[in-house]
Amino acid sequence: MNAPTQAATLDLGAMMEASLDSIPDAPDFSNPPAGEYRLLCKEAKIDKYETKKEPGIEKQRLKILYAVSQTIQLASDKEPPVPDGSMFSETFQATEEGLSYFKKRIREVMNASDLTGVSLGEMMNSVKGTTFQARITIRTTK
After folding, report:
1. Model confidence, pTM
2. Which of 30, 11, 94 is nearest to 59 (CA)?
3. What backbone torsions phi and psi does residue 92 show, to the nearest 5 degrees?
């Protein structure tokens, strides 16, 4: 299915007796274990949300949505490979420090040495559809 077809509103009432065989299963969201992966950047967007502490107050952050294209090698043999298509996200606070980390991540994903003169919108648009190799590490602290 292409993107416009996937986003089209369906007449669910007319589908009550129809099989869903032609509808693909949605990918799982998971936190991949430590290892080497080939990733696809599906989307970079401004994410709006509310907190339980401050209901009714809309906040913003930057969010990058990734899909695992391939598990290359896991750090531990005890972990099963992550199914291709599995998704996870990374968020960045809407602060100067958060933007600094976001800019760094975009530079790494795009394998760019310099982003001088590139706007936030251009960064978000240009990273969509980019595939890249990444090492995921997990640190635990007490």
Report:
1. 0.80
2. 94
3. -135, 130
SS3 101: helix
Give, in order, the Cα–Cα distances in Å from 89 to each of 5, 54, 74.
24, 23, 19
Neighbours of 82 (CB within 10 A): 20
CA atoms in the 13 A half-sphere facing the CB of 129: 2
pLDDT per residue, tens digit, the chain (142 aa), is 445 555 677 778 877 877 777 777 777 788 899 999 999 999 999 999 988 998 999 999 999 999 999 999 999 888 888 899 999 999 999 999 999 999 999 999 999 988 899 999 999 999 999 999 999 988 888 7
